[in-house]
Amino acid sequence: MAENNSSSLMEKVISLSKQRGFVFQSSEIYGGLKSAYDYGPLGVELKRNIMNEWWRSMVHEREDVIGIDASIIMHTKVWQASGHLAGFSDPLVDCLISKERFRADKAPRPQPKDELPIECADKGQAKTYVEAIQKRFNIELKRNGKTLYGMKVIDENTMGFFPDDSDKPTETFPYRGYVSPTFGSPFLSDERQFNLMFRSQIGPIDVLGDITAYVEQNKELDGKELRTGIEEIVKKSAVYLRPETAQAMFVQFLNCQQSMSMKVPFGIAQMGKSFRNEVTVEHFIFRSCEFEQMEMEFFVEPGTQKEWLDYWRDRRMEWWQKLANDPSKFRYRAHEKDELAHYADACYDIEYE
Questions:
Q1: pLDDT one-digit tens code per residue, 260-291
Q2: Which of 16, 21, 214, 279 is the most exposed place for a label (fewest CB within 10 A)?
Q3: Alpha-helical runs (H) found in 143-252
Q4: Strand pairing category for 238-241 and 199-201
């Protein structure tokens, strides 16, 4: 019920945003692009007001923070050094029934002998899923309200259909070791790597010509060998749209420090567009492929990071509360150890109720 209420509220927010001229679907007259949005007459003013206020408080009112405006396209070696090219990809899986797409490394992992109930949004969806599973896998799960029963984990590689609580399965299927996070469905596709960085080519020569020639000259190669060869051709002129603004502040650290005679501790701030080939694109402007970031990197003496983290955590909370109609709606959320980046001692989100 809570999930349905949340979905209903989101639909109302999206509708009101359009009616009032805040946010429009990108390319709407041509069917729209789900992962992209345009800010309307009031939306662009609101966004610029927030960004200008952030820049004023973060840069203009402080002597220990300076700003830059870096290029969206950076040298490929930047992303190699930062680890983005090697690790900025997700293993993705599709649910064969609900079509939900999710990260395999974040999915729930039922153990051997665990039941695998499929939790649907409502009874109508449950009935539809029963029919889809029966048609595709030739088994009929038991439906109790909006929950489907009958599947159980046999071992780490196998799951089975146990009709009417029987002790032995009448059908067995490969088990991937996890289920879909929203519905708990074990009927899944193979994993596929999904690169979160947008790749393009730099230079006036179309790389497709070189790829076509390579394929024509190497018809005897198998698919894997062919892909490796094509990747080598693409790499020569490949560039990437930045997935975050932070890297430019690291790359330009020395230039900023020397040109402005800054001494540690000091910060570098930037506002601008970032781009991610997002896994989830149905959460309105909260998760989109193109988005605006306001980011500051603060450089400190080793050993003082905890003190400065607490300082900036509190300053950012104060800033958000100053702009809010109800400051009590904000709260901290400390990241768990398994959420932290490999280089992080601690991290906080500021959440709004």
A1: 999 999 999 999 999 988 755 567 888 888 99
A2: 16
A3: 207-217, 223-235, 246-251
A4: antiparallel
Q: Is pTM beyond 0.85 here?
A: no
Nearest to 331 by CA among 305, 351, 348, 314: 351
Structural domain boundaries enclosing 103 = 91-192
- Which residues are within 8 A (CB) of 158 and not within 5 positions of it... i.e. 6 or more apart? 172, 173, 174, 175
Q: How many domains does the chain have?
A: 3
Question: For the segment 62-86, what is each residue's pLDDT rounded down to a tens digit?
Answer: 999 999 999 999 999 998 888 887 6
Q: Which two tokens stand for residue 50?
A: 């927030």
Give the span between the Cα atoms of 203 and 292, in whole angstroms. 27
Domain boundary among 236, 253, 288: 236
Domain-embedded: residue 216: yes
In a shared domain, residues 115 and 177:
yes
Q: Report the pLDDT averaged over residues 183-201.
A: 87
Helices (H), the chain: 2-19, 41-55, 76-82, 84-87, 123-137, 207-217, 223-235, 246-251, 253-259, 305-323
Nearest to residue 251, comparing CAs of 18, 25, 76?
76
The one-character DSSP state at 191 is -
Structure tokens at 256: 């900023």
Helix and strand element counts for the chain (H, E): 10, 19
Q: Sheet containing 73-74: which strands, arranged edge to edge?
A: 73-74, 238-241, 199-201
> What are the structure tokens assigned to 4, written together?
């349905």
